[in-house]
Each structure stands twice: as structure tokens, then as C-alpha cells.
Amino acid sequence: MLDAFNEKRKSVLGVLGQLTAVAGDLGTSFTRDRIQKGVVDKLEENLFHLVVVGEFNHGKTTFVNAMLGSDVLPVGVTPTTAVIHEIEYGEEPRATAVFDSGLREEIAFGDVKLFAIGNPTPDPDPGPVRVLEVRYPAELLRQHIALVDTPGVNDLSLARAEITYEYIPQSDAVLFLLDAGQLVKESERVFLQEKLLGQSRDKIVFVVTKKDILDPGELDQAMAYVQSQLGKLVTNPRVFCVSAEKALEGHRDDSGMDELLGYLTTFLSEERGRIMLDNALGDGIKACGLLAKGIDAKRRALEMSVEEIDRRIAAIKEDLAGQAKTIEQRRAAIREEVAAIKAWTKRDLDRFVEDVCEQVPGMVDGAEIDELKAHLGAFLERTFRDWARRETEEIAEALEKLAEKMIALVREDARDAGGRLATKMGADMHSPTIEIDTFAYDVGVAALAGVGLTVMFSNWMLGGVLVLAAPVL
């Protein structure tokens, strides 16, 4: 499937391997380990993650089985107790149950269905299963592709929050399944608008399942309807129609699966794969710059006497020792700023919880029980998530300002230290170019704004307020 990409990956890994060897020959173990563990190992292990999302009874698991080419996962699992399946390549079929408690337990592959419906067999009962990790020797998975089969997203649950705020943002493509028998329902529009489009618009692929229930004339009308309805939400939606059952029965030519897999191959290799390789090559180029500086230092050292080298090393050590106070001052400043952010965040949280607790009784009094059951949970979820999003934006802005301030100070300190190093190593030695890798910082702030605190606040407070509302529910 991904032959072209895998060839490019192999070529990049070869170049990075040579770079690692050069770093080892130069004795720069730090740079060697950074290239090997931070770039080479990551590129070798990196998987393309496809997350399958949709409402209950849309044939998600049958669809996943069709992609795997075999009835690997149990079909027809009770929707209220189904768990997430993470499926990766393995030489032999095996499965591991991961419980909410953190306990991991290897299970017989034939027992996957028991765990999938939330009925673990161990005694004593370790509690609910959070995720099932499945390993299977499917050709699709061999291509560095991982599948995530999710429960239905049309209920208010922590599983849905986990799908929305953990799995989808980290995915390379989201396969959103629609049922040919009930196309683009209102609940699906709401989920797309409120949960999915904001964070994953460019990587959603829509898949209409159960193609076999439509005759050719109905199929054309159905696809036209889906395109028109989704076109109101997404520009040029990518829509495929498949019959997973036909594919599993061996009639792949009629199933539509090959067309879908062909598109995914192109998308993963040309879009997501290009980003993956570009990042690896960028890290390699940075490592080359470090090695060039190391070679320059070694060359100069070879021109010096042993006494001169010892003298300069002693001077550098003395200079570095003097930097300890500056480093501790920077750390103290960061701790103080972070403590202030924590304090006003806690204050805002306390105020919000008090306001909600005061308002809930008034909302509940006089309301019909059925109305509360139907609407209160969704209302509370939206309210909490809206507040958490606003609060998170404020926190992210404060952290961004702090990070920018600290980066500027560290750059200044590093530039001064580099100048002193150049002076001690030789008058004609150029001061090293000091670059601070802000990628992790950028990603962290972005993730904070879009994911992290929203999940923390919403899950925690939603549980708390639902407890308050429990007597009427």
C-alpha cells in the first residue's frame, strides 16, 4: 500500500544512520543518542493512526474487520458497554486488556469479545476495561498503520470524551461512518459541528456503510444527498460508499473498499507522510550543525598543546559553574509565574462551580423528569465545555507570554555563554549559533488551548454536577 513512502522512509533512515555513526565516531554520545532515540527510533516506530468514528449500529466493527481482511473483532457488542480497540500489527494474534485502574492483563485472543462487552473474567474483578490493545498479522497493519475502533459517539459518556479529545486530535485520518439506511442524521450533524470539524476538518473521510442495501438508482441518489448535506458543513467532503460484508465475503471488487484504501494510501503517504519525513530531516539538519561545531572544536584541539587544552577546559568549567546561580534564578522566576497562574485558575474554577451549584436547583425545580433526562446532561456538558474553552484560552495566553519571556532570556544567556566559549577556545573561533527548539513548546501551548484543560475541567466538573442532579435523574 505505502511502498513509495516506505522507500522514502528507508532512504531517510539510511542517511540518519550514517549521521548517527559519525556522531559516535566523534565521541559525541549526547548527539548520537539524540539522533538515534529522538529521530531514528521515532521514525522507525511511527504509525499512521486511523480512527473509526460513528454512531451505534453503523457497522463500525464490521468495517474494521473488512479493512483487516478477516473477522478479527467481535460484532454486535452491546453499545452501552463497548470499549475502544487499538489494533496494531503483530506476528501472532494477541490481546491485552487495559483497565481503568491502570492494570494490564494479557488475555486469550478468543476472549476478546468477553472483555469488549465489559465482562472481564479475572477474580477479583479489576474493574471496567478502558481499552483493548489488539495485535494481528493483517497486511494493512504491516504497513505501519494502526486502527482505532471506537464505541458509538451518540451518548454522553467519558468514552466519547476520550475519543473526541484524545484519539481524534492525535490521528492521521478520521473515518466518519454514516449508515446508508439513515443518512446524515441531526445527531451526526451536531457531533460534526461541535466536536469534530474544529480540530480535524482536513483529515476527515466520510464512509457510507451498508452499500449493499441500496440498488444502483438509490445509491446515486443517496450519494448526491450525502454530498449536498455534508457540503454545508465541509468544503468538498471526501465521501466513499462501501459494503464491508461483501468485502468479508470475498467480493471486494463490488464492495468499494479498494477505492477507499487507495485514497487513504495516497493521503497518508503524500500528506501525513511528507510531514513525518520533513520533521525527521529537519532534526537531522540541526544535528549536522551540532556535529560541524564539534568537528571544528576537535580540529582546533589537535592544534593545541596538552597544557593549553587543560587550561582552556579549566576556564570553561569555571565559567559553567558560575552559570548555576543564573539558571536557578530563571527556574525561580518560572515557578513564581506558574504559581500565580495556578492561583487565579483555581479562583476562577471555584467561582464557576459556585455559580453552577446555585443555578442547578432553579433549573431542576418544576421541570419534567423526562425533559431533564433528555436535555440536562447535554446542556451541562456544553456549559462546562464552553467555560473551560474560554478559561483554557486565558491560561494558554499567560503560558505563552511566560514561555516567550523565558525563551528570550535563555537565548540571551546562551549567546553570552557562546561568546565566552569562543573566546576561551580561540580568538578566531566563531561563536556558536544558539537555537532553541520551540517545537515542543508550540505544540504544548496549542494542545493546552485545544485539548488538555478542556478535558480535565469538563470531565471532572461534569461528574460533579451530575452528582448534584442525581436525585432528579
Structural class: alpha/beta
Total strands: the figure is: 9
Ranges where pLDDT stays below 50 over 5 or more residues in a row are 438-473
**How many helices?**
15
Q: Given this structure, which CATH class of the largest domain is correct?
A: Alpha Beta
Strand content: 5-15%
Q: How many independent structural domains? A: 3
Main-sheet strand order equals 4-3-5-2-6-1-7-8-9
Mean pLDDT: 76
CATH fold description of the largest domain:
Rossmann fold
Structure write-up:
The protein is an alpha/beta fold and 473 residues long. The protein folds into three domains: 73 residues, no CATH class; 209 residues, 3-Layer(aba) Sandwich (Rossmann fold), CATH 3.40.50; 169 residues, no CATH class. Helix content is 64%, strand content 11%. The chain is built from 15 helices and nine strands. A nine-stranded mixed beta sheet has the order 4-3-5-2-6-1-7-8-9, with helices on both faces. The chain is globular. The two termini are 51 Å apart. The C terminus is likely disordered.
